[in-house]
Specification:
Shape: globular
Order of helices and strands: HHHHHHHHHHH
Strand content: under 5%
CATH superfamily of the largest domain: Tetracycline Repressor, domain 2
Largest sheet: none
Number of helices: 11
CATH class of the largest domain: Mainly Alpha
Distance between the termini: 16 Å
Number of strands: 0
Number of domains: 2
Helix content: over 70%
């Protein structure tokens, strides 16, 4: 058990180091030597967990959406908003998320499959939009698969703009504005009026999700 815990910590240390190097240098310029130096581990330890630089990058790409589950809401549109605003908050506060997004947007990353995060986010959005449509939350003309892709693509553009202009400092404001502009064309007015689209929504959902994760961790330790 202690050995397994140590292996998990080592893997996380390597991923955190890779995230920092990828964010600072981009995928193409980053080297295994830089990651080893940042992580403070042996080459053998790194290759035990990751077979290549591409494997490391895929680990960072996957890590950004592994740590938090958005709490379930009666309104599935609010749940979509919460997922988007939570991601915006984490982009401002979590180096692993920033590195994952940097990689996913890095058009110079030759040989790296960057489609995973976009596909996963579209799948999450599609599932929630289908539930929202079944509950009568969406306007009749809405096609969930189209709307899911529009939300993901629009968020990608907004975050890229914010990163270029001010290193994400205004991101939550920009994403709140995106939701206010996009949702009236998708959501029935009665539901729209009930949504919390405020700039502090992401931080609030983060605190709620963190508390829920801690409760689950304690429960798991006691069982």
């Amino acid at each position: 058990m202690a050995e397994q815990a140590r292996a998990i910590r080592t893997r996380q240390t390597i991923l955190s180091a890779a995230a920092k190097i990828f964010e600072e240098h981009g995928y193409q310029a980053a080297t295994i030597s830089q990651i080893l130096s940042q992580a403070g581990v042996t080459k053998g330890a790194l290759y035990f967990h990751f077979q290549s630089k591409e494997d490391l990058a895929q680990g960072v790409l996957a890590e950004q959406d592994q740590q938090f589950d958005v709490p379930s809401r009666a309104s599935k549109v609010q749940e979509i908003v919460d997922a988007v605003m939570l991601h915006a908050h984490r982009l401002q506060t979590d180096p692993m998320v920033r590195a994952g997004v940097r990689l996913s947007m890095d058009q110079l990353a030759q040989g790296l499959d960057r489609s995973g995060p976009f596909i996963r986010w579209s799948e999450v959005g599609l599932e929630l939009l289908r539930k929202a449509k079944a509950q009568g939350e969406l306007l009749p003309h809405v096609v969930p698969s189209e709307t899911a892709d529009v939300i993901v693509g629009s968020f990608a553009g907004i975050q890229s703009m914010s990163q270029a202009i001010c290193d994400y400092r205004d991101l939550v404001g920009r994403v709140s504005a995106l939701m206010r502009h996009l949702l009236p064309s998708v959501v029935v007015p009665s539901v729209l009026a009930s949504l919390d689209l405020s700039e502090i929504r992401g931080a609030s959902v983060y605190a709620e999700a963190t508390a829920a994760a801690q409760v689950r961790e304690v429960a798991g330790a006691l069982s």
